[in-house]
Structures are given as C-alpha cells and as structure tokens.
Amino acid sequence: MLKVLLSIFLVLVVVISIMGRTQKATVKKEKRVPQTLSKGWGDQLIWAQTYEEALFWARSKNKPLMVIFHLDDCPHSQALKKAFAEDEKIQKIADENFILLNLVHETTDKHLSPDGIYVPRILFVDPSMTVRADITGRYSNRKYAYEPSDIKICKFKLLA
Amino acid sequence: MLKVLLSIFLVLVVVISIMGRTQKATVKKEKRVPQTLSKGWGDQLIWAQTYEEALFWARSKNKPLMVIFHLDDCPHSQALKKAFAEDEKIQKIADENFILLNLVHETTDKHLSPDGIYVPRILFVDPSMTVRADITGRYSNRKYAYEPSDIKICKFKLLA
C-alpha cells in the first residue's frame, strides 16, 4: 500500500514539475499586448498622452479639455470606464467636442485636485487654461467623482 | 456629335459623383487604429505614459529612466525609432534595465533640456531623480542627439 502511494506521489511530482516548466515557457514566449493610450476608455477616441500635450491641443484647437483620473485596479474606475466606453453618444460627444486625457498618475498641477486626490475623478479645463472647479458631479464630499449612472449628468455637462 | 459628347459628359459626372459618395462613406466608416504608448519604439516594451509616472517607477523599481523626445513627422526621429525598434539586443536591454518614456511634447522640467529643445534627443535620469546631463551622444552642438548609427554607443551607455 505504501509503495503504491509513494509511486502515485512520485508520478504527481513529475507531472506538476513538467506542467510548471511548460507554463514558464509559455509565459516567457507570450507576446505582450501593446499598451494603448485609451486604456479602455474608447479606442476610437483621440487621446493626449500628457497634461502638457493636452493643454497644447486645448489651446490650439480651442476645445475644452476633459481629464479623467482613474486606476486599473479600482472597481469604481472600471465601472465608470465601461459605461463611458460603451455609450456611443458620449463617445461621439467626447470625440467631437473635447480634447481628452486619461491619467493613472497625478500631475504636478494642484489645480487638478481641488478637493483632494481620489479616483475616479473628472476635471474640465477651458481652452483658456482655466481649471473649471465649478463643474462638479453630484457628490458633496468628492465633488469630481462620477458613477456609471451619472453618465447622463456627464452628457449634459459635456453639452453645456 | 454634340449629343454624344454631352451624354459622355453626363455619364462621367454621374460616375464621379457616385465615386465621391463611396469614398466619403468609406472615410466615415473607417476605424481608427488605437494609439499605442510605444508609438513605434517597441510594442513589446513597457512604456510609462507621463514624466511623473516614469519618475515614480524609476524610484520604486530602482531603475534608471530613459526619456526619448521625438516627433512623428521628423525624419531623424523616424530613422532612430526604426533602428531602436528593430534592434533586438537594444530592445532586450531597454526592457530589462530601464524605465522607458517617449514623448512628443516637452515637459515643464527644464532639466530635461540642458542644451535646448530639439528632437530626437535622449536623456537619462537616475533612480535618485537626478537628470544625468553627463550622459551624452557624440555631437558637441546637440549633446543628447543620437543617430541610427549611434545605436552601438547607446548600447554601451545603457550597459554602463
């Protein structure tokens, strides 16, 4: 009995070690998916890379800038991203009327965090370079936070 | 004769107008290719999006940062990009040893333009956040410019 158990154990060890090796080889060979600037917020939209670039485009195209702060591993960011990316109307409005920037890191400009640093948070900047701290969502404690159900408010704001 | 010419002209007008319409429809339907963070400098590499993000990664991973300033419509940038992206060894060295950032817009940090603003230009930053103005290419007038043939110098610098 002990002999049988021992051989089963040995076979298991060999199988697991082979599986481990195969997996390692696969991981090493696996090609990385190129990172996109949209990060899932709309592949068909044109995104600025940095705040400086976004300000340049806002000024030169005379369009307001929309800055979305988010994090990959934040469920609230993910939910808002899904709603934003899947809403065709909001994608169209964003594409036609705004310079767009999404960031997973804060900038050095304190004007972009009027009531602190949190995600998701959306700030608008005028083509004249003024951060529009007066454009807020519907939460008094985190003024620039939006939820998926706020997309309609957002649409209204975008068109205002 | 005039009648024949007139009908040929009319047919031509109709054909051109139909072709025009088809072309317009195609342009409108055409999907945009999602912008990548690599912008052609190596899709398999991991790129930081902004200087702030790159500095954060350099500090937390204790790796030096390589900042490439370039422009899409600059032939010198294009040539350097091609050499950089196609050189497997340099891609491997860059991937394993550096935090990487490529920018088509200047940052607000003057330390990144020690001898002025031009492209292509490569600057290195220590994990301690010091811009290494001492790491230069082989041109005395534009110290941080590199040409495709300098890739070997670059390799040496990357390994130093």
TrEMBL record, chains A, B:
Q: Which residues cross the membrane?
A: none
Q: Chief subcellular site? A: endoplasmic reticulum
- Keyword Repeat: yes or no? no
Q: Where in the cell is it found?
A: Endoplasmic reticulum; Secreted
The record's listing under InterPro entries reads:
AGR/TXD, Thioredoxin-like_sf
Signal peptide positions (record) = 1-24
Which GO cellular component term is one of those annotated?
Answer: extracellular region
**Entry superkingdom:** Eukaryota
Q: Which UniProt keywords apply?
A: Endoplasmic reticulum, Secreted, Signal
Q: Which segments of the protein form a coiled coil according to its record?
A: none
What protein family is recorded?
A: Belongs to the AGR family.
State the PANTHER family in the record.
ANTERIOR GRADIENT PROTEIN 2 HOMOLOG, ANTERIOR GRADIENT PROTEIN-RELATED
Which protein is depicted?
Anterior gradient 1
